[in-house]
Design a protein that fits this description.
By secondary structure, the chain is mainly alpha-helical. It is built from 9 helices and no strands.
Amino acid sequence: RSLKACFARRGFIHALVAFTASGIVINTLSTYMDYLVRLNGAPRAYTGIVGGAFQFIIMISSLIIGKFTDNSRAYYSVTIGMLVLGAFGLAECGVSLEADQGNDLRWCLVVVAALVGPLQPVSTELGVDVVYPLSENTVLVIQQLFSNMLSALFIPVFKALKDVGSDKIDDSEMYERPQYTFSFYLLIVIHTAATVF
């Protein structure tokens, strides 16, 4: 009953899509952090450093953006802005991955954490604002359910497509694309689709 009431409210689906896209991006990048960080032979210790920084930046940027958004109550504008900036950040990660530039990719991952991480708390607030006076807990449960379910479905697809476009077809190609390049571009498409939704 509450689920139906939430979906009946105008704007709730947009908050849900933003939350879910952010969850898919964060969960997928966290799952494959080891590969992405160790590109170009970086030592294993970098995985812990960049992975820890990734999660820490998500937390700090969520607090900062969340405080700004709570004060301004511009949930929708901030959500759209974060979706657009996150799409550009992910695109830069994709370019760095395809160019096999491990150091640039590591920095881009941290930038993506700052741009995509705050989407979850901001879109939750947007959802709560849209469905008021319905329960905040209902909104969060629905968003978590969709985000976790779709992340769980996407992560195996991301892995299954890791070698698409990474094989050298003939000697005329200048370089071979790293694994997960196509998968990463699919992640960018999902985030961008959420932006224009």
